[in-house]
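seq as requested:
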Amino acid sequence: MVFTTQKICSMLLDIFLNTTEPVTAAAVLLFIAGEWGLLKKSGIRGWWALVPCARDYQLARCAGREPAGRTASILSFLIIITNTVMYFIKEDIALAFLVVIVITLNTMLYFYHLQIFSGLTEVYGARRRWIWLWLFSPTRWIPAMLWGWKKERQPLWKVEDLDLEMSRIVSGESAAVMDTGLTVNLKERSAWEFFRKKLLLQDIHMYVPQGHMVLLLGGSGAGKTTFVNAVNGYEKADAQVVLNGSDVYRNYKSMQYETGFVPQKELMRNKDTVYFTLADAALLRLPEDVPAELRKKRIEEVMEIFGLKPVRNSLVQKLSGGQKKRLSIAMELLSNPSLFILDEPDSGLDGVMARELMHELRRVADTGKIVIVITHTPDRVIDYFDDVIVLAKDSHRTGRLAFFGSIGEAREFFGCEQMEQIVKRINRKEEGGDGLADEYIKKYPEVHHA
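C-alpha coordinates:
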Protein backbone atom coordinates (compact mmCIF):
# COMPACT_ATOMS: atom_id res chain seq x y z
CA MET A 1 0.00 0.00 0.00
CA VAL A 2 1.41 3.36 -1.04
CA PHE A 3 0.82 6.30 1.27
CA THR A 4 0.96 9.77 -0.23
CA THR A 5 1.59 12.83 1.92
CA GLN A 6 -2.01 13.88 1.33
CA LYS A 7 -3.35 10.52 2.51
CA ILE A 8 -1.17 10.51 5.64
CA CYS A 9 -2.33 14.02 6.54
CA SER A 10 -5.94 12.97 5.96
CA MET A 11 -5.47 9.96 8.24
CA LEU A 12 -3.94 12.05 11.02
CA LEU A 13 -6.71 14.65 10.70
CA ASP A 14 -9.41 11.98 10.93
CA ILE A 15 -7.76 10.52 14.03
CA PHE A 16 -7.41 13.93 15.66
CA LEU A 17 -11.02 14.92 14.93
CA ASN A 18 -12.19 11.43 15.93
CA THR A 19 -15.07 11.25 13.49
CA THR A 20 -16.10 9.21 10.48
CA GLU A 21 -19.26 11.26 9.93
CA PRO A 22 -19.70 13.42 6.80
CA VAL A 23 -18.98 16.69 8.53
CA THR A 24 -16.59 19.44 7.52
CA ALA A 25 -13.34 19.86 9.41
CA ALA A 26 -14.30 23.49 10.03
CA ALA A 27 -17.42 22.51 12.00
CA VAL A 28 -15.44 20.08 14.14
CA LEU A 29 -12.67 22.59 14.79
CA LEU A 30 -15.26 25.19 15.80
CA PHE A 31 -16.73 22.66 18.22
CA ILE A 32 -13.28 22.04 19.72
CA ALA A 33 -12.81 25.79 20.11
CA GLY A 34 -16.19 26.03 21.84
CA GLU A 35 -15.33 23.09 24.08
CA TRP A 36 -12.13 24.91 25.09
CA GLY A 37 -14.28 27.77 26.38
CA LEU A 38 -16.70 25.41 28.14
CA LEU A 39 -13.87 23.68 29.96
CA LYS A 40 -12.34 26.99 31.06
CA LYS A 41 -15.66 28.21 32.42
CA SER A 42 -15.93 25.05 34.52
CA GLY A 43 -12.43 25.45 35.94
CA ILE A 44 -10.75 22.81 33.73
CA ARG A 45 -7.77 23.60 31.54
CA GLY A 46 -8.99 24.38 28.06
CA TRP A 47 -6.23 22.54 26.23
CA TRP A 48 -7.91 19.24 27.15
CA ALA A 49 -10.20 20.01 24.20
CA LEU A 50 -7.24 19.23 21.92
CA VAL A 51 -6.73 15.73 23.33
CA PRO A 52 -8.77 13.01 21.61
CA CYS A 53 -10.68 10.72 24.02
CA ALA A 54 -9.77 12.85 27.03
CA ARG A 55 -11.97 15.72 25.85
CA ASP A 56 -15.08 13.52 26.06
CA TYR A 57 -14.30 12.75 29.69
CA GLN A 58 -13.50 16.34 30.65
CA LEU A 59 -16.66 17.66 29.00
CA ALA A 60 -18.66 15.03 30.90
CA ARG A 61 -17.20 16.36 34.15
CA CYS A 62 -18.49 19.82 33.23
CA ALA A 63 -21.90 18.29 32.59
CA GLY A 64 -22.00 16.35 35.86
CA ARG A 65 -22.01 13.10 33.87
CA GLU A 66 -18.61 11.67 34.75
CA PRO A 67 -19.60 7.95 34.45
CA ALA A 68 -20.89 8.57 30.91
CA GLY A 69 -17.67 10.42 30.14
CA ARG A 70 -15.56 7.44 31.18
CA THR A 71 -17.40 5.14 28.78
CA ALA A 72 -17.41 7.75 26.00
CA SER A 73 -13.65 8.22 26.26
CA ILE A 74 -13.11 4.45 25.97
CA LEU A 75 -15.41 4.24 22.95
CA SER A 76 -13.61 7.19 21.34
CA PHE A 77 -10.28 5.44 21.85
CA LEU A 78 -11.60 2.24 20.24
CA ILE A 79 -12.92 4.24 17.29
CA ILE A 80 -9.52 5.87 16.79
CA ILE A 81 -7.76 2.48 16.88
CA THR A 82 -10.25 0.95 14.44
CA ASN A 83 -10.03 3.90 12.05
CA THR A 84 -6.23 3.68 12.11
CA VAL A 85 -6.28 -0.05 11.34
CA MET A 86 -8.61 0.56 8.39
CA TYR A 87 -5.90 2.56 6.64
CA PHE A 88 -3.70 -0.54 6.48
CA ILE A 89 -6.36 -3.07 5.41
CA LYS A 90 -6.46 -4.21 1.76
CA GLU A 91 -8.99 -7.07 1.90
CA ASP A 92 -12.57 -6.01 1.22
CA ILE A 93 -14.09 -8.50 3.70
CA ALA A 94 -11.89 -7.36 6.56
CA LEU A 95 -12.53 -3.73 5.66
CA ALA A 96 -16.29 -4.28 5.65
CA PHE A 97 -16.05 -5.96 9.05
CA LEU A 98 -14.16 -2.98 10.48
CA VAL A 99 -16.70 -0.59 9.02
CA VAL A 100 -19.46 -2.44 10.88
CA ILE A 101 -17.42 -2.17 14.10
CA VAL A 102 -16.91 1.58 13.61
CA ILE A 103 -20.60 2.14 12.95
CA THR A 104 -21.50 0.13 16.08
CA LEU A 105 -19.02 2.04 18.24
CA ASN A 106 -20.22 5.39 16.90
CA THR A 107 -23.83 4.42 17.61
CA MET A 108 -22.94 3.56 21.19
CA LEU A 109 -20.93 6.78 21.52
CA TYR A 110 -23.94 8.74 20.26
CA PHE A 111 -26.07 7.63 23.23
CA TYR A 112 -23.36 8.52 25.76
CA HIS A 113 -22.94 11.90 24.07
CA LEU A 114 -26.70 12.31 24.51
CA GLN A 115 -26.24 11.99 28.29
CA ILE A 116 -23.32 14.41 28.32
CA PHE A 117 -25.00 17.06 26.19
CA SER A 118 -28.23 16.70 28.17
CA GLY A 119 -26.21 17.40 31.30
CA LEU A 120 -24.62 20.48 29.73
CA THR A 121 -28.07 21.80 28.87
CA GLU A 122 -29.04 21.52 32.55
CA VAL A 123 -25.78 23.03 33.82
CA TYR A 124 -26.23 26.09 31.60
CA GLY A 125 -29.91 26.41 32.45
CA ALA A 126 -30.91 26.21 28.79
CA ARG A 127 -34.19 25.00 27.36
CA ARG A 128 -34.44 21.36 26.36
CA ARG A 129 -34.71 22.20 22.66
CA TRP A 130 -31.02 23.11 22.65
CA ILE A 131 -30.25 19.41 22.84
CA TRP A 132 -31.16 19.06 19.16
CA LEU A 133 -28.28 21.30 18.15
CA TRP A 134 -25.91 19.31 20.36
CA LEU A 135 -26.91 15.93 18.92
CA PHE A 136 -25.81 16.55 15.33
CA SER A 137 -22.20 17.15 14.36
CA PRO A 138 -22.88 19.85 11.73
CA THR A 139 -24.67 22.03 14.35
CA ARG A 140 -22.89 21.00 17.56
CA TRP A 141 -20.43 23.86 17.30
CA ILE A 142 -23.20 26.48 17.65
CA PRO A 143 -24.11 25.89 21.34
CA ALA A 144 -20.49 25.05 22.11
CA MET A 145 -19.25 28.41 20.82
CA LEU A 146 -22.15 30.40 22.29
CA TRP A 147 -21.94 28.83 25.75
CA GLY A 148 -18.18 28.56 25.74
CA TRP A 149 -17.33 32.14 24.80
CA LYS A 150 -20.37 34.29 25.47
CA LYS A 151 -19.87 36.00 28.86
CA GLU A 152 -23.60 36.09 29.59
CA ARG A 153 -23.66 32.29 29.57
CA GLN A 154 -22.22 30.85 32.78
CA PRO A 155 -22.52 27.32 34.28
CA LEU A 156 -24.60 26.85 37.41
CA TRP A 157 -21.57 25.28 39.13
CA LYS A 158 -17.91 24.70 38.42
CA VAL A 159 -16.01 21.45 38.56
CA GLU A 160 -13.19 23.12 40.49
CA ASP A 161 -15.65 24.31 43.14
CA LEU A 162 -16.87 20.77 43.74
CA ASP A 163 -13.33 19.40 43.81
CA LEU A 164 -12.15 21.97 46.34
CA GLU A 165 -15.22 22.01 48.60
CA MET A 166 -14.10 19.05 50.71
CA SER A 167 -10.33 19.45 50.19
CA ARG A 168 -10.49 22.78 52.04
CA ILE A 169 -11.66 20.94 55.16
CA VAL A 170 -8.38 19.93 56.73
CA SER A 171 -7.28 19.35 60.28
CA GLY A 172 -4.95 22.34 60.22
CA GLU A 173 -2.03 20.65 61.97
CA SER A 174 0.00 17.44 62.02
CA ALA A 175 0.40 14.86 64.75
CA ALA A 176 3.53 15.38 66.85
CA VAL A 177 6.28 12.88 66.02
CA MET A 178 7.13 10.82 69.10
CA ASP A 179 10.13 8.60 69.89
CA THR A 180 7.85 5.68 70.67
CA GLY A 181 4.63 4.45 69.10
CA LEU A 182 3.28 5.13 65.62
CA THR A 183 2.95 8.61 64.13
CA VAL A 184 1.08 9.03 60.84
CA ASN A 185 0.95 12.34 59.00
CA LEU A 186 -0.61 11.55 55.63
CA LYS A 187 -1.27 14.52 53.37
CA GLU A 188 -2.58 12.50 50.45
CA ARG A 189 -2.43 9.23 48.57
CA SER A 190 -3.34 9.71 44.94
CA ALA A 191 -3.43 7.93 41.60
CA TRP A 192 -4.11 8.96 38.02
CA GLU A 193 -7.48 7.85 36.73
CA PHE A 194 -9.08 8.84 33.42
CA PHE A 195 -6.81 11.79 32.67
CA ARG A 196 -6.98 13.36 36.12
CA LYS A 197 -5.51 13.00 39.53
CA LYS A 198 -7.73 10.99 41.88
CA LEU A 199 -7.31 11.43 45.62
CA LEU A 200 -7.63 8.07 47.36
CA LEU A 201 -6.79 9.34 50.86
CA GLN A 202 -6.34 12.83 52.26
CA ASP A 203 -5.50 14.59 55.52
CA ILE A 204 -5.05 11.71 57.98
CA HIS A 205 -3.03 12.51 61.10
CA MET A 206 -2.73 10.47 64.29
CA TYR A 207 -0.45 9.14 67.01
CA VAL A 208 -0.91 5.59 68.36
CA PRO A 209 0.96 4.72 71.60
CA GLN A 210 2.75 1.43 72.11
CA GLY A 211 0.63 -1.37 73.50
CA HIS A 212 -2.60 -0.17 71.88
CA MET A 213 -4.96 -2.40 69.93
CA VAL A 214 -6.75 -0.31 67.31
CA LEU A 215 -9.89 -1.03 65.30
CA LEU A 216 -9.82 0.28 61.71
CA LEU A 217 -13.40 0.97 60.72
CA GLY A 218 -14.99 2.14 57.48
CA GLY A 219 -17.42 1.16 54.77
CA SER A 220 -16.53 -0.53 51.50
CA GLY A 221 -14.23 1.68 49.43
CA ALA A 222 -13.39 4.01 52.32
CA GLY A 223 -9.69 3.31 51.84
CA LYS A 224 -8.89 0.96 54.72
CA THR A 225 -6.54 -1.27 52.71
CA THR A 226 -5.00 1.74 50.97
CA PHE A 227 -4.38 3.30 54.38
CA VAL A 228 -2.65 0.26 55.90
CA ASN A 229 -0.54 -0.15 52.74
CA ALA A 230 0.55 3.47 53.12
CA VAL A 231 1.34 2.98 56.81
CA ASN A 232 3.47 -0.13 56.32
CA GLY A 233 5.24 1.42 53.31
CA TYR A 234 3.97 -1.08 50.75
CA GLU A 235 2.32 1.74 48.75
CA LYS A 236 4.01 5.02 49.58
CA ALA A 237 1.92 8.16 49.93
CA ASP A 238 2.71 11.83 50.43
CA ALA A 239 3.18 11.13 54.10
CA GLN A 240 5.49 10.78 57.04
CA VAL A 241 5.17 7.51 58.94
CA VAL A 242 7.38 7.14 62.01
CA LEU A 243 7.49 3.94 64.06
CA ASN A 244 9.37 4.08 67.36
CA GLY A 245 11.47 7.00 66.15
CA SER A 246 12.37 5.53 62.71
CA ASP A 247 10.96 6.81 59.43
CA VAL A 248 9.26 3.86 57.69
CA TYR A 249 9.70 5.34 54.19
CA ARG A 250 13.31 6.44 54.52
CA ASN A 251 14.40 3.21 56.20
CA TYR A 252 12.01 0.89 54.41
CA LYS A 253 14.42 -2.03 54.00
CA SER A 254 15.26 -2.28 57.69
CA MET A 255 11.73 -1.35 58.82
CA GLN A 256 10.24 -4.29 56.91
CA TYR A 257 11.07 -6.46 59.90
CA GLU A 258 9.34 -3.99 62.24
CA THR A 259 5.97 -4.23 60.50
CA GLY A 260 3.85 -7.33 60.04
CA PHE A 261 0.82 -7.58 57.76
CA VAL A 262 -1.64 -10.47 57.71
CA PRO A 263 -3.86 -10.32 54.58
CA GLN A 264 -7.40 -11.65 54.51
CA LYS A 265 -6.43 -14.43 52.13
CA GLU A 266 -4.35 -17.21 53.67
CA LEU A 267 -1.05 -17.73 51.82
CA MET A 268 -0.04 -21.23 52.88
CA ARG A 269 0.63 -24.55 51.15
CA ASN A 270 -1.89 -27.18 52.20
CA LYS A 271 0.58 -30.08 51.91
CA ASP A 272 3.09 -28.58 54.37
CA THR A 273 3.02 -29.22 58.11
CA VAL A 274 2.54 -26.42 60.61
CA TYR A 275 6.19 -26.56 61.67
CA PHE A 276 7.62 -26.47 58.14
CA THR A 277 5.22 -23.67 57.19
CA LEU A 278 6.67 -21.61 60.03
CA ALA A 279 10.21 -22.70 59.16
CA ASP A 280 9.83 -21.48 55.58
CA ALA A 281 8.29 -18.24 56.81
CA ALA A 282 11.19 -17.74 59.22
CA LEU A 283 13.68 -17.84 56.32
CA LEU A 284 11.76 -15.03 54.61
CA ARG A 285 10.78 -12.87 57.58
CA LEU A 286 13.89 -13.02 59.74
CA PRO A 287 17.17 -11.31 58.76
CA GLU A 288 19.67 -13.54 56.97
CA ASP A 289 22.23 -13.24 59.76
CA VAL A 290 19.92 -14.82 62.36
CA PRO A 291 21.47 -18.17 63.45
CA ALA A 292 19.54 -21.39 62.84
CA GLU A 293 19.18 -22.06 66.56
CA LEU A 294 17.54 -18.66 67.12
CA ARG A 295 15.16 -19.34 64.24
CA LYS A 296 14.10 -22.64 65.79
CA LYS A 297 13.65 -20.96 69.16
CA ARG A 298 11.48 -18.23 67.64
CA ILE A 299 9.33 -20.83 65.86
CA GLU A 300 8.73 -22.62 69.16
CA GLU A 301 7.84 -19.30 70.84
CA VAL A 302 5.15 -18.31 68.31
CA MET A 303 3.68 -21.82 68.34
CA GLU A 304 3.40 -21.51 72.11
CA ILE A 305 1.77 -18.08 71.90
CA PHE A 306 -0.91 -19.22 69.45
CA GLY A 307 -1.45 -22.76 70.80
CA LEU A 308 -0.08 -24.50 67.72
CA LYS A 309 2.27 -26.96 69.44
CA PRO A 310 -0.34 -29.77 69.59
CA VAL A 311 -0.72 -29.57 65.77
CA ARG A 312 2.91 -28.88 64.87
CA ASN A 313 3.12 -32.01 62.67
CA SER A 314 -0.36 -31.68 61.16
CA LEU A 315 -0.85 -30.73 57.52
CA VAL A 316 -2.23 -27.26 56.91
CA GLN A 317 -5.20 -28.70 55.01
CA LYS A 318 -6.20 -30.67 58.13
CA LEU A 319 -6.39 -27.58 60.36
CA SER A 320 -9.63 -25.95 61.43
CA GLY A 321 -10.49 -22.43 60.26
CA GLY A 322 -9.40 -20.93 63.57
CA GLN A 323 -6.09 -22.82 63.54
CA LYS A 324 -5.33 -21.63 60.02
CA LYS A 325 -5.94 -18.04 61.12
CA ARG A 326 -3.61 -18.51 64.06
CA LEU A 327 -0.96 -19.97 61.78
CA SER A 328 -1.23 -17.02 59.36
CA ILE A 329 -0.74 -14.60 62.24
CA ALA A 330 2.11 -16.65 63.72
CA MET A 331 3.97 -16.47 60.39
CA GLU A 332 4.02 -12.67 60.57
CA LEU A 333 4.81 -12.60 64.28
CA LEU A 334 8.06 -14.50 63.70
CA SER A 335 9.99 -11.29 63.03
CA ASN A 336 8.68 -9.84 66.32
CA PRO A 337 7.34 -6.67 64.62
CA SER A 338 6.54 -3.51 66.56
CA LEU A 339 3.51 -2.83 64.32
CA PHE A 340 1.06 -5.61 63.51
CA ILE A 341 -1.70 -5.06 60.92
CA LEU A 342 -4.40 -7.65 60.23
CA ASP A 343 -7.04 -7.52 57.49
CA GLU A 344 -10.19 -9.34 58.67
CA PRO A 345 -8.42 -12.06 60.71
CA ASP A 346 -11.80 -13.21 62.10
CA SER A 347 -13.59 -13.62 58.76
CA GLY A 348 -15.24 -17.03 58.53
CA LEU A 349 -14.97 -17.65 62.27
CA ASP A 350 -17.88 -18.04 64.66
CA GLY A 351 -18.24 -15.74 67.66
CA VAL A 352 -16.38 -17.99 70.10
CA MET A 353 -13.42 -18.58 67.80
CA ALA A 354 -13.29 -14.88 66.87
CA ARG A 355 -13.08 -13.88 70.52
CA GLU A 356 -10.37 -16.44 71.18
CA LEU A 357 -8.35 -15.02 68.28
CA MET A 358 -8.81 -11.43 69.44
CA HIS A 359 -7.80 -12.49 72.95
CA GLU A 360 -4.48 -13.70 71.55
CA LEU A 361 -4.02 -10.43 69.64
CA ARG A 362 -4.77 -8.51 72.83
CA ARG A 363 -1.96 -10.46 74.51
CA VAL A 364 0.36 -9.46 71.65
CA ALA A 365 -0.56 -5.79 72.11
CA ASP A 366 0.01 -6.05 75.85
CA THR A 367 3.67 -6.88 75.17
CA GLY A 368 4.09 -3.30 73.93
CA LYS A 369 3.24 -3.78 70.26
CA ILE A 370 0.73 -1.82 68.20
CA VAL A 371 -1.99 -4.00 66.68
CA ILE A 372 -4.31 -2.58 64.00
CA VAL A 373 -7.26 -4.77 62.98
CA ILE A 374 -9.77 -4.47 60.15
CA THR A 375 -12.96 -6.41 60.85
CA HIS A 376 -16.53 -6.24 59.53
CA THR A 377 -17.97 -7.69 62.75
CA PRO A 378 -16.41 -5.42 65.40
CA ASP A 379 -19.14 -5.42 68.04
CA ARG A 380 -18.60 -9.03 69.10
CA VAL A 381 -14.96 -8.27 70.00
CA ILE A 382 -15.02 -4.51 70.70
CA ASP A 383 -14.00 -4.91 74.36
CA TYR A 384 -10.50 -5.96 73.28
CA PHE A 385 -9.76 -2.63 71.54
CA ASP A 386 -8.33 0.60 72.96
CA ASP A 387 -8.96 2.95 70.03
CA VAL A 388 -10.85 3.18 66.76
CA ILE A 389 -9.91 4.80 63.44
CA VAL A 390 -12.95 5.67 61.32
CA LEU A 391 -12.33 6.31 57.63
CA ALA A 392 -15.14 7.61 55.43
CA LYS A 393 -15.59 8.55 51.79
CA ASP A 394 -16.35 12.22 51.32
CA SER A 395 -18.65 13.52 48.56
CA HIS A 396 -15.83 12.99 46.03
CA ARG A 397 -15.13 9.44 47.22
CA THR A 398 -11.84 10.35 48.86
CA GLY A 399 -10.98 8.46 52.03
CA ARG A 400 -10.87 10.90 54.95
CA LEU A 401 -10.45 10.66 58.71
CA ALA A 402 -13.88 10.92 60.30
CA PHE A 403 -12.66 10.03 63.79
CA PHE A 404 -9.73 8.73 65.83
CA GLY A 405 -9.89 8.14 69.58
CA SER A 406 -11.02 5.75 72.28
CA ILE A 407 -14.05 3.48 71.91
CA GLY A 408 -16.01 5.54 74.45
CA GLU A 409 -15.19 8.80 72.66
CA ALA A 410 -16.30 7.27 69.37
CA ARG A 411 -19.67 6.30 70.82
CA GLU A 412 -20.17 9.84 72.10
CA PHE A 413 -18.97 11.47 68.87
CA PHE A 414 -21.29 9.45 66.59
CA GLY A 415 -24.12 9.01 69.09
CA CYS A 416 -24.01 5.23 68.58
CA GLU A 417 -23.38 2.37 70.96
CA GLN A 418 -22.43 -0.14 68.28
CA MET A 419 -19.55 0.20 65.84
CA GLU A 420 -21.63 -1.21 63.01
CA GLN A 421 -24.08 1.66 63.50
CA ILE A 422 -21.17 4.07 62.99
CA VAL A 423 -20.47 2.47 59.61
CA LYS A 424 -24.13 2.92 58.70
CA ARG A 425 -23.95 6.61 59.65
CA ILE A 426 -21.03 7.31 57.29
CA ASN A 427 -21.98 5.05 54.37
CA ARG A 428 -23.58 6.65 51.33
CA LYS A 429 -27.36 6.40 50.99
CA GLU A 430 -27.11 4.25 47.87
CA GLU A 431 -25.06 1.82 49.98
CA GLY A 432 -27.79 1.56 52.59
CA GLY A 433 -26.25 4.17 54.91
CA ASP A 434 -27.30 7.55 56.25
CA GLY A 435 -24.96 9.54 54.00
CA LEU A 436 -23.47 11.63 56.83
CA ALA A 437 -19.78 11.16 55.99
CA ASP A 438 -19.14 14.81 55.03
CA GLU A 439 -20.81 16.01 58.22
CA TYR A 440 -18.53 13.94 60.46
CA ILE A 441 -15.41 14.74 58.40
CA LYS A 442 -16.12 18.44 58.95
CA LYS A 443 -16.99 17.94 62.61
CA TYR A 444 -13.94 15.89 63.65
CA PRO A 445 -11.24 18.62 63.29
CA GLU A 446 -13.43 21.04 65.28
CA VAL A 447 -13.99 18.58 68.14
CA HIS A 448 -10.44 17.19 68.03
CA HIS A 449 -8.80 20.61 68.36
CA ALA A 450 -11.35 22.06 70.78
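The beta strands are 182-193, 196-208, 213-217, 238-243, 246-247, 259-262, 339-343, 370-374, 387-393, 399-406.
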